[in-house]
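Reminder to self: tokens first, then the designed residues, so the page reads top to bottom the way the pipeline ran.
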């Protein structure tokens, strides 16, 4: 989806994972600017693995230096937030160019990982963990 924001055109994608939701905007630019919740990537996600996860759609499509990524992410922990950002960036890239759908699909970056925590059941300690049996 192409939208106008602050007199500049951007491509939008929403990514989700567990309880994390990422709203991603891709602006055409010539730098490697990635800002998450108004912080640089290295500050928002200090661990190198999370940074690699976030950059994966850009590397797969060979568009690393073409976009500025501005994102808002809420909910979950840092791992699921990084995966939600990856999903959002991949969707925004498809909004930019429909031809990028094939390589992104091939690397399984457009599929929403729907696994979430199972709810706790009545009479159990967790979702499936029963109280310990005692003979008495």
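Designed residues (136 positions):
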């Amino acid at each position: 989806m192409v939208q106008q924001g602050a007199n500049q055109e951007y491509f939008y994608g929403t990514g989700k994972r567990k309880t994390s939701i990422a709203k991603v905007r891709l602006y055409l630019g010539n730098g490697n600017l990635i800002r998450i919740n108004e912080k640089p990537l290295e500050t928002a996600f200090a661990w190198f693995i999370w940074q690699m996860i976030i950059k994966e759609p850009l590397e797969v499509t060979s568009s690393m230096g073409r976009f500025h990524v501005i994102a808002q992410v809420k909910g979950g922990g840092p791992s699921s937030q990084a995966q939600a950002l990856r999903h959002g960036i991949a969707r925004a890239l498809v909004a930019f160019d429909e031809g990028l759908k094939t390589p992104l699909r091939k690397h399984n970056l457009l599929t929403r990982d729907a696994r979430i925590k199972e709810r706790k059941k009545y009479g159990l300690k967790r979702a499936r963990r029963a109280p310990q049996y005692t003979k008495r």
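The chain has a mean pLDDT of 92.
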